[in-house]
Amino acid sequence: MAKRFDIIALGRACIDLNAVEYNRPMEETITFKKYVGGSPANIAIGSARLGAKVGFIGKISNDQHGRFIENFMADVGIDTSQMIVDQHEHKSGLAFTEIKSPEECSILMYRDQVADLYLKPEEVDEQYLKQTDLLLISGTALAQSPSREAVLKAISYARKNQIKVAFELDYRPYTWQTPEEVSIYYSIIAEHADIVIGTRDEYDEMEGKSGGTNQETTNYLFQHRPELIVIKHGVKGSYAYTKDGAIYQAGSYKTKVLKTFGAGDSYAAAFLYALSNGKDIETALKYGSASAAIVVSKHSSSEAMPTVQEIEQLIAAQS
Amino acid sequence: MAKRFDIIALGRACIDLNAVEYNRPMEETITFKKYVGGSPANIAIGSARLGAKVGFIGKISNDQHGRFIENFMADVGIDTSQMIVDQHEHKSGLAFTEIKSPEECSILMYRDQVADLYLKPEEVDEQYLKQTDLLLISGTALAQSPSREAVLKAISYARKNQIKVAFELDYRPYTWQTPEEVSIYYSIIAEHADIVIGTRDEYDEMEGKSGGTNQETTNYLFQHRPELIVIKHGVKGSYAYTKDGAIYQAGSYKTKVLKTFGAGDSYAAAFLYALSNGKDIETALKYGSASAAIVVSKHSSSEAMPTVQEIEQLIAAQS
Amino acid sequence: MAKRFDIIALGRACIDLNAVEYNRPMEETITFKKYVGGSPANIAIGSARLGAKVGFIGKISNDQHGRFIENFMADVGIDTSQMIVDQHEHKSGLAFTEIKSPEECSILMYRDQVADLYLKPEEVDEQYLKQTDLLLISGTALAQSPSREAVLKAISYARKNQIKVAFELDYRPYTWQTPEEVSIYYSIIAEHADIVIGTRDEYDEMEGKSGGTNQETTNYLFQHRPELIVIKHGVKGSYAYTKDGAIYQAGSYKTKVLKTFGAGDSYAAAFLYALSNGKDIETALKYGSASAAIVVSKHSSSEAMPTVQEIEQLIAAQS
Amino acid sequence: MAKRFDIIALGRACIDLNAVEYNRPMEETITFKKYVGGSPANIAIGSARLGAKVGFIGKISNDQHGRFIENFMADVGIDTSQMIVDQHEHKSGLAFTEIKSPEECSILMYRDQVADLYLKPEEVDEQYLKQTDLLLISGTALAQSPSREAVLKAISYARKNQIKVAFELDYRPYTWQTPEEVSIYYSIIAEHADIVIGTRDEYDEMEGKSGGTNQETTNYLFQHRPELIVIKHGVKGSYAYTKDGAIYQAGSYKTKVLKTFGAGDSYAAAFLYALSNGKDIETALKYGSASAAIVVSKHSSSEAMPTVQEIEQLIAAQS
Fold first, then answer.
1. Does A34 sit within 8 Å of B34, measured CB to CB?
2. Optimal mutation site among C177, C180, C187, C209, interface A, most CBs of chain A within 10 A
3. Is this prediction's ipTM beyond 0.85?
4. Domain A10-317 homologous superfamily, CATH
5. All partners of chain C with 3 or more CB pairs under 8 angstroms
6. Where are the domains of chain B?
7. How many Å apart are CA C134 and CA B119, to the nearest integer?
8. Which residues form the Carbohydrate kinase PfkB domain (chains A, B, C, D) (predicted)?
9. Which of B299, D130, D184, D272 is deepest in the core (most CB within 10 A)?
10. Are D282 and D16 in contact (CB under 8 A)?
């Protein structure tokens, strides 16, 4: 029997403030538009846009920003019953985006004591998790306690209830204390996940080195639980490795790039959606790449998430 | 011989993000405009707009927001040589303004670990202070260490060098730990200031009670250093008391109110400007009220600060 | 070829201040004697007393107490080259012992910001760990960062280098934030250890419940790495379970109890020593029980650790 | 009419652990004796021993050490009704004393998150303070919030109720963040005190310089409230200055020095006792010096506080 959810995402749901006047330094930007942001929120929104049944576990601020986030996510069809409202005046994380040029994008982050990092392990509901086939974990949720322990608890529930875990590395330097901490907690989660997705640089952070190879990464992780490992190399495309030794590759789609934000999240949303709808890995990689190409051509991350039709049109157009 | 500065303001210089779509809850606002904000920054900007020679002592973030603040203040003619750039990743404070109606305005504040509260006492330069006639202290700078100690240090330099101190109570509940702390530090500074300006409610916070009277407040403070005490009662107007027993009153000017933000800062800027330009107290009160009336009719606080001509036109129009 | 060490213990080495006047409340005790204390330090000292080659990884205070600890441990033959001297004014943990009666003992702990909890993962040396057959982890080292991460790092080195890990649960409520944290980190370490030793109550803490059974505990842990699980039931004796289904039991030895402190540490030292010297599990349990019986009859924990001869005499005397 | 108390002391009451085996480094000391310690507690005890009516305002730990402190102070006749029992697991401060030689004494301090620094301003009772003629403030209580604010509150009550304030500088580097903080808060309190007592070095800390002179110190402080300033120069004796320009000097008494701890506290207790019993300043200085000479010849600070008879005998013997 089908479960209630195709995917439950766990982690942060925040506010993006995107420069309306762009192709300039942010000092010269006066107007900003507000969107929902944060990697797992974007993946949840992207999945819902593609038609998946989606739940979300997280903590949001008890203010106008928190309510905006919950309203937006509910409007796209996400179940927000497990988006807990913080009661200790923690704020929503903010990301002011600066778009100097398509190649030069940066983010000014507000992540001090943000609500999402205060999700507690006792607030993760095992009965809720049992209603999904797939749990998506975002690496940033590991950066601080108690959110870190909430992830560890969710992973242990997932294992106990035979729920697959996808780990999107989503490494952001802010809020982490030391590279050693990153490496230690990323390794623990990656070893216990079924699917791991990240950029080459993110795997290097996890392995505590620079210049690592995909061979080393897959040698290491396939000794543990993972069955499918996706490693992204930016415009050079991405690779998927399976435990039985198969390797798949996908290029990237041509597009008019406005900014680079949101590429990874839209990739993950479409890739996981395709897999859970019975597509083969090769097709899933194309879905991921096409979805990313569409989002980087638009102003927002969350609102720009494509439909299945848009993705298939782009794939068809560039085959 | 005239000093280099008419006034040096000490305290926070932050970012206001004002709702572009207003007369609605902020959940429904999508676009925000960025302005410089924060009470002492607004007073400095207002003073400069009126033609005063202005300096500023504060700490700003080492990012796009910090640079925007410094650029804007330098552009209106403020000396920013003592606006120290934070080196520990503290951010600029943010104030998202919500304008539901002219009567219902609120602010969503980001004040956790903001740069301005990290100004240290050893960063306050006695030689710089000696170049002004008047030091303006903003109460919010007392909320946390080390900014609290920077204020205490500045006060001690001012006393040592016969510089007048104006204390604008500027009470904001965020970042203060307890009402007792508010009362203790507000009292210490008020007792050592020459001019104290605040609303009736703010004096009540200082005195640790509710329903206090102007009589009680002036009885208390005139035992200490203050010579001039301004107490504002909102639309009912404001009072000025002098140590020799004189009382002055001013009404408020009619205007089309857009929002209430910025009223107090524009009042203080114009009132202090008038005093330091030899106007009598009665005229100074009119300047304050007229300046406030102009700012509450406009969208921003800092950019809306009026010129002397605009103030005098309004006073003349409503005499 | 034999390795340099039989056992390396990782965790805290602290100061015990034992009441000289006892059988009374500590309020009435005026004189205290100073000993080295802390579970892993006691186990290291006990092991060295029995003749094992012992190393220690930990962080000690840069003061008279820290130097006393290192001197004492070096004097009993422990390699102290990896006892790192703290450089940030963290103090040695203290335990003032109160002995009201043999049945009523309590400890007044000083554990705020103690040096041992500041051991960092980057201070754990893989080359040093490779020189041992067995790594002993103490649960209290998991209570806070960065010591928590140092343990996780050590475990990962141990696994990589085929070093056996013994996990002595050593649960102390101080310094832990919540029961959920205890359960989460105890579970992670227990699942990755080869040998787990603790009291019934400590396993309940790990499993996040009360009234758990040995059957439930062994069912859970034998799904993971552990091969040998020791569960102590106080005066009712202790049980050892092996992955292949065998169960061993040991009673406790008669003795004149002075206080209960140090029982668990002396038990673990003698049990692990016996195992690593080729004794069978049944004999190892006797060693543990006899060693505990000897220590509870004496004033200190560390100085009272018995020799092999003393243990064998007691076993022989009560067979 | 006489008030209920001659003196109320405010600040820390802690535990001293004095080396029983001395004239050696503490690493070689095994036995320690427990006494009540902390400057204001010692002054309170010394005053009570001399026959004064004494009250105490402070916060003590909710454990055996806290109860020992309260019992001991009550036993010497101090009113302990305002010694508040901490409810948040803060511990009593500890001072392990090392006596290498009479000239080489040091202290190993445990002052992290100690109960006395958590006294809150709202816990200072104005009605209680009104019952004394003299309030003694100890500088260490200024080192952290909320104890710092409790002192500021007590000072404001004292001023309001015409209670004299004696400020014993009692500077201890631990727990202070920066020299600027020391200087700022010491100055505020000294300027508002009636009597200030300290060593030459402590006044230098207050003035934020080194090599200051008594002339500079008295020039500065006599511009403010103080009427009597005592400056101690160790074995060279001490000076008392009055606002009307008088200067008094006292030498030190010959004694067999065991250790230097407790000298300042016993000095302050006897000096203030003499003053409040109508002795002239010259006699009060002798009382202070004689009391100090007696305490440094004995093992403890608090228990060694002399009686009036002992002090007068020593003065007579060496006249």
1. no
2. C180
3. yes
4. Ribokinase (3.40.1190.20)
5. A, D
6. 10-317
7. 52
8. 6-307
9. D272
10. no
